[in-house]
Structure formats: C-alpha cells, structure tokens
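Think of the structure tokens as a kind of shorthand, similar to the way a musician reads notation: each symbol stands for something richer, in this case the local conformation of the backbone. In the example below we present two proteins back to back. Begin with the first one, reading the sequence and then the tokens, and try to describe in your own words what changes along the chain.
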Amino acid sequence: MHPKQGETFIDRLEENLIAILLGTMTLITFANVIARKGFNSNILWGLELTVFLFGWLVLLGASYAVKKGAHLGVDAIINMVSPPVRRVLALISVAICIMFSLLLLKGAWDYWANFANLPATEGRWFPTGFEDKFLAKGWYEVDDIPHPAFLKWMEDVFNEGESYSKMPRLIPYAVLPLSMGLLLYRFIQIAVAVWIGKVDRIVASHEVEDDLDDLHAQSGENA
C-alpha cells in the first residue's frame, strides 16, 4: 500500500499547479482553434507555450504519481516473501530510486543553472562543488513567447539591463530542477514510511491496494 500523506503545502501547491497547467493548455488550444477557423489567424506563440506547459505537466506529474501510487507496480514476487524480507526489498528499491532521483536532480540543475547565470555542479555522478568559471546564458530566449511586462525586472538581474524580446529560457526550463527535487522528496517520504513500518512496498498493484484499503477501513470500524 502506498502511504497516505496528509495534505501539506507542497501537496496543495503540486495539485493546484497541475490543475492550472491543464486549464491553461486547454484554453490556449481552444483559442488557437477559434482564431484559425473563425478569423483565419493564429496565436503564434500558442504552440510553443503549449509544448512547454505539457513538459511541465509531464515532469511534475512524475512526482505526483509517486505520491498517489499511480505508477505501475508488479508485486507478484514480494507477495511471496515474508514481511521482513519484503521490508528489506522495499528499502533496497527505494534507495535505488533515491539515488536515481539525485542523478536526475544533478543533471537538471546543471542544464538549467547557466540559463539562470548560476554555476553548474562539478563531479561526474554526484556534486562535489560548483564551477568557478562558467558561461552565463541568461540572455538566451525562447523562439516565440513574448516576454511579459510584469517580468521586466528580470532584464536587470539576468541580462545586464538589456531588453528581452522573448521570454528568457530560464523560466520554462526551471521545471527541470523543480520537478526532480519534488521527485526526490516523494521518494524520501516513501523511504521514511517503509523504515517506520507504515508501508512495505513502493507501489502496489491497484487490486492489492484496494484490498488493503478495505481491510484498514474494516479495522477502523472494529476498533
């Protein structure tokens, strides 16, 4: 069974952001269809923005699926072993997931950092420090999305006062370290839950999960 976490600020932020992404993608796509079919026009930046929003949705959805236990789980083998062995296997599995998430977070930061005029990490596998010298790329822009007026302050911070004609890439690419950080956070949550004995696996098959939920509900009624 997957841990049932209480609603926290991060939980609500994650869910609300996913809902906003879905709603915005739908509105932009609908508006573009109306513009093309009704007015023989086109929202030039609409396609690029939708692609970025979809990327945000997929990457943030990975950590959200871990939270909800929505990833595919095959538990035929672990159901055959004793509870102590099952717990050990779960700890090994979640340790591998945490290590993989750390690698993803390092790669995501290293790719995004220069676009935000920040140093990438040193070290091939795990961070051993930050680069002393790096090429700042805060001036890189996307292809079509215009730079919003309320973000004009970014020109002084990231582009030496030069005007942006399009949105700087550091904004849409920020989802890379954000999503990988959330993914790491979710796996650490599961690791703690396995360690204290709250759960005995990372992801259960949905049939087993439903059965365990029913069993816990009955236990609560009998308590």
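Once you have a description of the first chain, move to the second and do the same.
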Amino acid sequence: MTAPASAPRIDAPHTKPDVHHQVVIVGGGNAGISVAARLRRANRNLDVAIVEPSEKHYYQPLWTLVGGGVFDKRVTEHSEQSVIPGGVTWIREAVSEICPEENGLLTATGKHVGYDFLVLAPGIQIDWDRIPGLVEAIGHDGVCSNYSFEYVDKTWEFLNAFTGGTAIFTHPATPVKCGGAPQKIAYLADDAFRKNGVREKTNILFMCANASIFAVPKYAATLTKVVARKGIDARFRQNLVEVLGDEKKAVFEHLDTGERTTLAYDLLHVTPPMSAPDFLKRGPLGNADGWVDVDKYTLEHVRYPNVFALGDASSLPTSKTGAAVRKQAPVLVKNLLAAIASQPLSARYDGYTACPLVTGYGKLVMAEFDYDGNPKESFPFDQSKERRSMYLFKAHALPRLYWHGIMKGRL
C-alpha cells in the first residue's frame, strides 16, 4: 500500500494497536450513525467505535431549500456528540490509512486503531480545487453552491438579489451525492425570479455532464416537461472545467467532442466534482476509482470478509442518497451480525434509492427506484407527478424522521 511520505504507517506485522474495538465504523454521518445505532439496538454488548473528526452533523438534504430561501441553514446543524449512540466510543480523529491485512487503521495523529470488523462509511469527498478558479470565486460576485454549509446561504442571497441576466447551474462529470440537487435549485431559481419580476430578463442554463435530465425514464418524462414549462435551456454532456471569477465567465467542455465553450454569467451555481476520500484512493480497499469495493447485494468487501461498506463511499451502483442508506443500513447490520456469529450472509440490498426532486416551491416528484431503474414507489399514487404533499413531506416530515428515527436506528 502506498501512502504519502508524511503519513504515519503501520510498519511491522501485527503491530499492537493503541486501542482495539470489536467493530470500528469510519464515518459519523448518516450511514455511520445509522449502522452504529442499529448495532447497539441489536446487541448492547457489542464494542462499537466511530472514527469521525467533525464536531458538527448536518442534515444535508435540506440544503436545497436553504439555498432556495425556505429555511435558515442553522436548522440543519446539530452537534456530532448529540447523534453518537449511547455506549459507542467516539474517536474524534480523521483516518489517514487503513491496513486490512493487519485489521487496523491509522488516524492523522498516528493513533493505531485495531478492529475485528470494519464498517466504512466516510461519505464522499468534495473536490473544490479540481475546477481552477472555483475556490477563489465561491461566495463572491454571484458564484455559489448548495454543497457547502459555509456558502449555502449565499445561494439565496444571490438568487434573491438577482436583477436579470444569465444564471447558470452546473452538474459535474463525477458521481455526486443527491444527484437531483443540481437541477432542483435551478427550478427554485426560476420560481424566485418570477416572484421577483425578473424572469423575463433572465436566461437560465442548466449545464449538465450527464446525457439526459434523469436516468429513469418514468421520472425523466416529467422533468423534461418541467424544463420546457420553465423555459430552462438544458444542455447535456457539458462539464464545467474552469471559473474565471474576475471576468464572470465559466468554461465548459463537451464530453463527447472536447470542444470548449466560455459563457458569461451573472449568477453561477456550481455543483463541484466529487470522488472517494483520498485515504481510500491510496489504499487496498477501493476499486479502480477508489470506491470501497463491496458486493452490491451483501455490502461485504469482495476481498476482505471482515470489512463492510455503505453509503456514498461505497462502490454500490446506485444513486448516492440518504434514502439509499436507509435501505442499506439494515442489510449491512444483519449481515455484519451474521459474520460476527460465523453464519451465512442472508440479507440482500436491491439498489433501492430515492430522489425527492423539488420542481418549484410547493412541488415535488418523489422518484424511487432500484438497481435496474425500476420504480420502487412507496405511496399509492403515481409518484412521477408533481405533488404538494410530497414537497411538504420532504420539507417537514423527513427532517423529523431523520433526527428522531434514522439517527436512533429505528427507521
């Protein structure tokens, strides 16, 4: 395994760890906390630890509506301590290296943590610096992003103050968490501009690296109509490659032809490129792209049977959403408990995910589907239709279910 020269290493075979736990979970976000809570509910005698450096825990699905001016961003923030399940040890450090041959990991400070079983749920890494000029431009002169707690309120500040011109919304050529979020804010912007009387003076562009508006045909049909109704100029296979903040211009590359186009903007909402965390990319647990290489049904690692993964950092070929985690967590926990008991892994995950697609203030398409793109709808009506009930469900019911149900291992 290769690690940066400055990183600590587990050099000697069978190095005695500084601490050891029966189950170590890397990541204290939705996935990690869900698994920890479910494990503790299933067996209070399990020795479980979570490795997570952050002091804050965020309910990120609400950031679209924060950027749209519906909520204050502070309602999405809780302390990490408040969501750590009782009886679980919190190791407040970042992981620098995992050594599965030694059943151990190293933290950024050099602490060696040993485990019997490892659950990887570190989430996705946001690579702001992969787009030249973005780091310097973000938060200034109309450049914003809902993918940052620091800057999400800038989105509403710039939308609400917009007086006309060109508003560009981007979707990158990488996996992203909540794949519908890049287009959702464009729909809210259209509504906000109409309310403020500037829509007729505005050109809205949705520059998307994907080949279509949505991968599942049933929901794509509705979204195509939404785009047409709102007069949004949707351009596909277009990837943002540079931000020229001083000139208020954005450079896009067509992924099929390589042709580059420079567009002037008055407002630029950027969904940044994302990838697997660096410590996974440089270690033995990832696939060619760095995602934790697990069986897509059992969530067990394909080479290390005492390692499991779920959520955004996993190789599972489904959308990276909190709804997917809600279905992955019980499968992982059941199979992990079976592995601890030396029993066969019987639980199966079918790729279920959901994307609550906000199409405007008070409107939402609740897309739910499996690995094969088959709808897996939960409600007794056609969920491809825009509904106010589903908007209210996302805005008000889901946050409560998250904090009081999912984070407690009950849902």
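Compare your description with these statements about the second chain. Residues 127-274 form a domain with the FAD/NAD(P)-binding domain fold (CATH 3.50.50.60).
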